[in-house]
Amino acid sequence: MRWLRRKLNRTHWVAGLLGYELPRGETTEPGLIVLQVDGLSRRQLEKAMEDGRVPFLRKLVRRGHFQLESFYSGLPSTTPAVQAELFYGKKSAVPSFQFLDRATGKLRRMYEADSASDVEDELRRECGKPLLDGAHAYSDIYVAGAARSWFCSRDFALREIWKRVNVLKWLVLSALYFVKLLRIAGLAAVELVLAFVDVARGLFRNQDLRKELSFVPMRVIICSVVREFIRLHILLDIERGVRVIHANFLGYDEQAHRRGPGSAFAHWTLKGLDRTIRDIHHAAMASSYRDYEIVVYSDHGQEKTVPFARTSGRPLAEVVGEALSTGPASSFPVWTPAFPTVVGSTWDRCRGLLQREVPLESMAATCDPEKEIILTALGPIGHIYLPVKLGETERAMYATRLVEGGVPLVLLPAADGVIRAFDREGSWTLPGDERHLIGEDHPFLKEATEDLVGLCQHPNAGDLLVSGWRPGIPPVSFVLENGGHGGPGSEETHGFVLVPDRLERWHRGLRAGCLRPAELRSMLMRYLDLSSEEAVAHHTTPANGTLKVVTYNVHSCRGIDGKVRPERIARVINQLDPDVVALQEVDVHRLRTGHADQALAIARHLRMEHSFYSVLEEGSEGYGIAVFSKQPFEIQRSALLTQAARGKEARGAIWIKLPASDGRPAVHFINTHFGLARRERIIQAGELLGDEWLGAVAKDEPAILCGDFNSVPSSRVWQRLNERLPAASQGRTGQVARPTFPAHRPLLRLDHVFASSDLEVENVIIPSTPTSAVASDHLPLCVEFKIPTE
Fold first, then answer.
1. 80 & 130 share domain
2. Does residue 74 share a domain with residue 206?
3. Alpha-carbon distance 506 to 99, whole Å?
4. Residues 588, 550: one domain?
5. Cα atoms found within 13 Å of the Cα of residue 403, Cβ hemisphere only
6. How much is the pLDDT for 584?
7. How far is residue 560 from each of residues 27, 240, 672, 740, 779, measured CA to CA in Å?
């Protein structure tokens, strides 16, 4: 069925018809898909989960597949700065989204191809290998070494657009995805209707009609067309086995800028994004070639802002011109770039080239930093570049005038490395007065203080910095938007990361204070490094007086997706952090599972002692049961319970003894796997209850018997074993015993743990994450016991 489903898969056919080379077999190299939700803060994500806007993400978080973590963006809290730190490890690579490059005298706007390319070339020279080396990238600021990219800033250069034109390819895609194209058209039509409703609302609030209408095509393109295009291409990438994929989805960010981060229009876009992530997740989990991990994160959040022109009654450029109208800068005019409309400067360039009005190289914004005061303020933080070098006293005078003109906060770097700040209450310093300037309830106060100081000292920062963030007043943006980011606000710097269970353990080991782009980069780089070992979290059993036991039928490490993955089994076990583990159906050097020693591979991943007992041997091949322990143990006995006969497998057991320590008694631990026929199970139970097994355990020493008994609780076998050792099927009061087979839809309780009555059951855990549901045909059963003192 898996083979047939793959052959009939439309994405598989499209990839072949487009001439893509499809991989054969399987690879042990892990794959990584990183999905960025631009501008969505953690608080807004949690609100969307509560309101049912992102049901798929909510389900994965509740099932434990994802761990929701806070993400500190750093400063400035903009995509170019966050992606520079994530892709290259460089903090505060740019001072804002729009700034003056002092070395070249050029204005940098990071949505432009030339600006993004120049900044990235410098990052590459300084930092070396990027995160996305050889990857595929979508809608990012930087290409970051990607072998293929779409909708990244540098892709909007005309030469790049021309190279990608392939009429035949687009005709094939249009034919094969005709229904999908109709769906995209339908979504675009819905977006168009909603956009005009939004226009009507904007007019009711006295917004500018031209600006409202110019936002309509951008909204339709970004919120529907581009999102669906990226989704289809990522599905093709998964089919082709691309190892690393990074995509940035801009729909929510665009809506939040226009109508506010908590607006219904912004949250409406999250529904489509949730469906997109669901499709990508399902395709990645179904990949027959590569095992993928998916990370979902937001680079930053957004503050609900008030336009500066509304609070002060005039634009920022006018306030700056008046404040600097006297003194040493009075003879210089104020120059500020106009914010482009429709789809940014790309549209302006294409239109100019088609009309042959302006050549490509002269389309960049021109300014003269030696003869003009340059003002760049694209959001809640801005830079003022002065054509003359002024002392601290003169700049402080201008800062005071700007505050009197309505600017909430003005920052200027001092010679001693301390940042001086001015607001209506007086002058302050950073570090020192961060509680007043940033806020005592800021979730990342220490980090934001350090980064704000570093931002002011950036080589391309302005001589004066204006900020719309100050505790106690509504955040202000210096452009016409109801949602903004770029400054040190508690919401705009507070994104999120949905970390899968495998990477979450590395996150615990690497984390220092808060998870920021550099830490996320380290986590992802370590995951992609094939030589790095899986992180494990070991607790010390004697210290807390508990013993956590896991029994797990691993089905020869072959999951229900057909992949043989011992490391995936180890990952499921490691999530439970057990002290001792019993595994059934383990292959060692068998042809059918690639001659791997599965017991040894799992032991290395878990960093545990282990012992394997083979109930079936054919030459060098073995098949049987295994036990694993954090602590050294003694093997008491390993033998067959019944011989193989008439098509029935031989069945056996292995008995180990965990030594006494710190006033705790020794614990006897037996792992077994019963047969499929009722009569042989009765015989096997009788053997275990006899004098050579449980009958030989000292009465004053606890014993645990576990395994796959192929018996339900109503069976005679289960009842006989339960009389000797009570079943630990329930933990604390209120817990209900749950089935473990089959893994994808558990119906039967075949896996059991029986224990002496002096071992008190603390908890029973049966994980139901997407990984555990596919790793084997059984789910693991974990029981935590409280060990009595001797």
1. yes
2. yes
3. 36
4. yes
5. 20
6. 98
7. 17, 21, 23, 14, 12
DSSP 606-635: HT-EEEEEEEEEETTEEEEEEEEESS--EE
Q: Report which DSSP code applies to 647.
A: T
Percentage of the chain lying above the pLDDT 90 cut = 63
CB 53 within 8 A of CB 273: no
The secondary structure of residue 648, as a DSSP letter, is B
With bands split at pLDDT 50, 70 and 90, how would you rate the model's confidence at 17? low
**Looking at residue 171, which CATH number applies to its domain?**
3.40.720.10
**Alpha carbons 251 and 139: distance in angstroms, whole number:** 11
Tokens of 499: 């970390």
pLDDT tens for residues 714-757?
A: 999 999 999 999 998 765 556 678 999 999 899 999 999 999 99
The model's confidence at residue 328, banded by pLDDT at 50, 70 and 90, is very high
The radius of gyration of the chain's CA atoms, rounded to the nearest angstrom, is: 31
Range of the domain at 458: 306-339+366-480
Q: How far is CA 165 from the centre of its chain?
A: 33
Q: What's the confidence (pLDDT) of residue 357?
A: 38
Q: From CA 252, how far away is CA 45, in angstroms rounded? A: 11
> CATH number of the domain that 564 lies in?
3.60.10.10
What are residue 784's DSSP bridge partners? 548, 763
Inform me whether the pLDDT recorded for 693 exceeds 50. yes
Both structure tokens of 9: 């898969």
**SS in 3 state form for 690-756?**
CCCCHHHCCCCCCEEEEEECCCCCCCHHHHHHHHHCCECCCCCCCCCCCCCECCCCCCECCEEEEEC
**Does one domain contain both 125 and 156?**
yes
Asked whether residue 27 is domain-assigned, the answer is: no
Q: 228-267: b or e for each residue (b if 16 or more CB lie within 10 Å)?
A: bbbbbbbbbbbbbbbbbbbbbbbbbbbbbbbbbbbbebbb
Are the beta carbons of 756 and 718 closer than 8 angstroms?
no
- Please name every residue paired with 781 in a beta bridge, in sequence order, or none if there are none: 551
| Lowest-confidence pick of 44-53, 56-65, 440-449 | 56-65
- How many residues in total does the chain contain? 790
Strand 476-477 to 483-484 pairing: unpaired
- List pLDDT tens digits, range 121-168: 999 999 988 999 999 999 999 999 999 998 888 776 444 444 444 556
Same domain, 451 and 474: yes
> What is the pLDDT, as a whole number, of residue 699?
85
Token digits of residue 625: 């049961």
Q: Is 31 exposed, middle or buried (0-12, 13-18, 19+ CB in 10 A)?
A: buried
Residue 373 predicted with pLDDT over 60: yes
> Token pair of 377, please?
């303020």
Half-sphere exposure for 128 (CA within 13 Å, toward CB): 1
Please tell me the distance from the alpha carbon of residue 108 to that of residue 376, in angstroms, as a whole number: 10
Q: How many CB atoms lie within 10 A of CB 227?
A: 23
Taken in order 524, 530, 535, 536, is the CA torsion positive or negative?
positive
First to last CA, the chain: 55
What is the dihedral angle through the alpha carbons of 568, 573, 574, 576, rounded to the nearest 10 degrees? 140
Q: What is the pLDDT of residue 341?
A: 38
**419 in Cβ contact with 413 (< 8 Å):** yes
State the angle between helix axes of 178-204 and 167-176 in degrees (0 to 180), rounded to the nearest 10.
Answer: 90
Q: How many independent structural domains does the chain possess?
A: 3
373-377, 381-385, 559-563: which has the minimum mean pLDDT? 559-563
**d(C-alpha 728, C-alpha 784), whole Å:** 9
Measured at the CA of 268, the angle between CA 267 and CA 270, to 5 degrees, comes to 70
